[in-house]
Amino acid sequence: MKDLAIEVRALSYAYPDGQMALRDMNFTVHTGETVGVIGSNGAGKSTLLLHLNGVHQGSNGHVRVHDLPVTAPHLVAVRRLVGLVFQDPDDQLFMPTVQEDVAFGPMNMDLSEAEVQTRVAQALTTVGASHLAPRAPYRLSGGEKRMVAIAGVLAMTPSVIVMDEPSAGLDPSARRRLINLLGSLPQTKIIATHDLDLVSDVCSRVLVMCEGVVEADGPPEVIFANAELLSRCHLELPLGLQKHT
Description:
Blueprint: E1 4-14, E2 20-30, E3 34-38, H1 45-51, E4 60-65, E5 68-69, H2 75-81, E6 82-85, H3 98-107, H4 113-126, H5 142-154, E7 160-164, H6 172-184, E8 188-192, H7 196-202, E9 205-210, E10 213-218, H8 220-223, H9 227-232, H10 239-242
Parallel strand pairs: 3-8, 3-9, 6-7, 7-8
Antiparallel strand pairs: 1-2, 1-4, 4-5, 9-10
Helix pairs in contact: 3-4, 3-5, 4-5
């Protein structure tokens, strides 16, 4: 289907020591959706995200991005479609300045210097970090690093953005800025997080993972109303809902 952004079918993956991380996973994500992926530690959330742009490739099953197989011959094209924001922004920020860091991806896309600089300026403006352009990434706060890492992905103009724990370690003000940003981005978004209040705020759909499988898939209000499911998957209600129960 043309409006499918992500298709995962019968996907399984084992770590080198033989431990199964993903087990026969099946789901699709439509263009423009914002999908939260939740689950306890070890549920397989991060491993799943790394399959969506080919960092990992399953032992069985397949992943497709806009009908393009996530396989070795297509990885360059897939990684232009899928922007991955790692849990730790220090894993993404390595250039001497923010400007150079955000420019790194576009510079490797055979774009003109003018186009690169336009993309950098637009990406930094979108995340509210234009003033950080001359700064060294290692001198930024955690929230500033997070926004710059997102800007680096936006500068690549992906159609899908995949984020691993984007609100981890943020203070309340930075977290609110992140939520506002996520709500404003038009791309398809897949967000793995323990922050269930963020999921309630920005996601129209939730995948619940437990021991490498999708235990449930549905709107946040349906998922969070299922106390038995949350208990079985070692999850709790978002704080914003607990006070009403």
